[in-house]
Amino acid sequence: MNKREKAISRNGVSAAATEIQPKWLNSPIIPAVVVALILLPFVNKAFHIDDPLFIWTAQQIQKHPLDFYGFSVNWYVDDKPMYDVTKNPPLASYYIAAIGTFFGYGEIPLHIGFILPAIAVAIGTFYLARHFCSNALAAALIAVVNPVFLVSATTVMCDTMMLAFWVWALFFWIRGIETRRHLFLLLAAICSILCALTKYFGIALIPLVAVYAISQKQRFGRWVFYWLLSIVALALYQWWTFSLYGRGLLSDAFLYPAQFSVLVSQPLLGKVLISPAFAGGCLITALFYSHLLWSQKALFAGIVAMIILVGLLYFFPEFKDTAELGREKFRGDLMVTMGLMIVAGVSLIGLTLDELRKHRDSKTLLIFLWIIGTFVFASFINWAINARSLLPMAPAAGILIASRLEGKHVSRFGLLIPLLPAAAIAIAVVWADYKQANTARTAVGVIHGEFDTSRNNLWFEGHWGFQFYMQNAGCKSLNFNNPKISKGDFIIIPMNNTNIIFPEKELVSLNKTLKFTPCPWLATMNNVCGAGFYYQGWGPVPFLFGRIPPEYYYVFEVSRGREN
Questions:
Q1: Looking at the 3D structure of the chain, how many domains does it have?
Q2: I want to staple 497 with a disulfide (CB 3.0 to 4.6 A). Which of 60, 189, 205, 462 is the partner?
Q3: Residues 223 and 365 in one domain
Q4: pTM for this prediction
Q5: Using CB atoms within 10 A of its CB, is residue 548 exposed (0-12), middle (13-18) or buried (19+)?
Q6: Is the domain of 452 the same as that of 364?
Q7: Which of 283, 336, 299 is nearest to 143 (CA)?
Q8: Which tens digit of pLDDT belongs to each residue from 176-210?
């Protein structure tokens, strides 16, 4: 047992900390309230990115509870079965269906419903952190006051819910291993199963908890039975989905990254640069604690490294070309932002490696595998780099930073001061994502007001939230393989969207250009300035401060149709 473990009492709280800090500072209510207060102003956010896929699945579940993917959707070029389009398990959609049944599928009830998993993450991280450090409050706040967590919590996708089951599974597992109580191990197994059935990345819990148990017990024991429950449950899910759709959706999800990565391939140099930039930007709190975590020499080295990197990006275009970062997007603000985020990301990874070097115990090994495993998956295994794939690192990063801050000659309130600029940036990123999502809903309202949708002659390209609102307005998604357009029809194309193919000039003429202003100084998804929070193809950083261009929607009138 090392010094840190000796400082932790049986219930996970340092005796010294309990004596000197007020009771209210040792409560999970604080991070829970912080999360709720930040998220509540955004409950009317328009559905965004992949939100519609989860909502449509929920509506299918409401009609056919045991056939969750038994419908088709035009999400990639033409109509495809839903099990071909989405690569997530259905548990989050069952949750949406429950909310929708009682309160409807509007933005406000669904977003309020998804604040609950976010609060569960905050509380779970607090209790989990008590097994690792004496300042669980700092750990929980450092974890949740990050752009990746707060933005993810304003969606109705599966990521935050998966993370809630993840942290509680680890909490119950550690308690079960340490106390040898069956109830905790059973609760851990249940949370692990629910985690994997919310998002497939949750399967990573299975080897993670096994390594922790082995490193703690040095032998196989009663925990193996509960560990096997997760494997049996996933095997049953594989069998069930195979019987429903002719393929096991679990194995299908494992094959998807290899199949899709061919289409979005990135050179190794590009991944080596983009992945730490995403990690550093998504987990921005690490940047503001760096002056407490590293020596002055290390901080100076980081600044020099950032200057060198920005210089390479600025003076050597072939460097950007080799990494395929998109030379046309690289303005000065993007170069500096990327350099700063890369240094922050490398700092977090370096901190993780250094912690394992200093503390060779089971808890340190757990945090190490949690952070490095998530980072490697998001950077080199997943179909593309995106913020959502890095979200599972947030609680581990909070616990790691809080653990490293122990012993520093800083007051407890002083340890929380770096959260203020981090929170300001994180809330600004949430605001920018909120504004961008709302432009799609606003655009559809304008289009619906200016065009007669009852004539069934309004087609559109693009997907995400725009598709959700366009279809609700009575418009039709254009099927590229069977475009049933006629003379006099209109095609609406959003420029900052996915799966866009401009029609032949001979077939259409530009009727109108609609312009909407999102947040003018910060972007999360903009393929012109280089911000790619949800997908690296839009840009090499998850968000960008700078001059953000408007959102354009082009309305084309079909001058010569294809009668089918």
A1: 2
A2: 462
A3: yes
A4: 0.90
A5: buried
A6: no
A7: 283
A8: 998 889 999 999 999 999 999 999 999 999 999 99
